[in-house]
Amino acid sequence: MPEDITFNQPIIKYHNGAFIDQSDDIATEFPLTLYVNQQEFATIVCSPTNLEELVLGFLASEGVIFRRADIQNIHLDDSKGFCHITLNREIEQHYGQYTKRMISSCCGKSRQFYFVNDAATSKVSMTETKITAQEIFSMMDALQEQSTDFKQTGGLHNAAISDGKDFYIHRSDIGRHNALDKLFGYCIEKRIPIRDKVLIFSGRISSEILIKASKIGVGIILSKSAPTDLAIKLADDLNITAVGFIRNETFNIYSHPERVI
């Protein structure tokens, strides 16, 4: 397994009419294949850090596990890029359901879901957390300060979990979903309640990111970038406050503004 989240690559840089021999820090890409109960389940292309957290968060967000105790054994084979997980039970859902597209509402939830499993595992937020405008700016500034790997490579997504004042954990990954799964996995491992927490994210709030936030269980998501229309519709339906374009002392609230005071 690659040891670092970045590696140093010789490059030729063109600058002011001249070619210059230099080196550049490049984000490392690592495929990790998961076997659940001896069956191949998924391959995650990720940054090679905090892999057990990534596995826990991914399996929880897919509805395969609900708590750490659902796993009897987890074995990471870093040298070959495999992770073998043995559960204390059989997987209840059929593998095909994870990517089966739906064309109507499911389980009484939003009609905006594309996949059956997303509708089954997403949660309507019940959080009563409220945050101030200044706390929003402070959390985004703190995420920017933590994002040293992004500053090196320009090729990583960054995310953090906060109680509105202090960070609990910050994670980076080449995959935006992976960064969130690592946070989720950390909270599962440490048994940290999530419902009252805030998710801070560096990238665009797409429908996939909003659904991932819902699966994690947070009620507020903050981003320095924009949301998509489908993400806003999902945020409305799932009772999630989505705040975007947090920069230069401004931000936009796209859904459930009552949590921002």
From TrEMBL:
The keyword Cytoplasm applies. SUPFAM superfamilies: Cytidine deaminase-like. The active site is at residue 107. Keywords: Cytoplasm, Molybdenum cofactor biosynthesis, Transferase. One of its GO terms (molecular function) is sulfurtransferase activity. It is found in: Cytoplasm. NCBIfam families: fdhD_narQ. HAMAP family: FdhD (MF_00187). Required for formate dehydrogenase (FDH) activity. Acts as a sulfur carrier protein that transfers sulfur from IscS to the molybdenum cofactor prior to its insertion into FDH. This is Sulfur carrier protein FdhD. The lineage of its organism: Bacteria, Bacillati, Bacillota, Bacilli, Bacillales. The gene is fdhD.
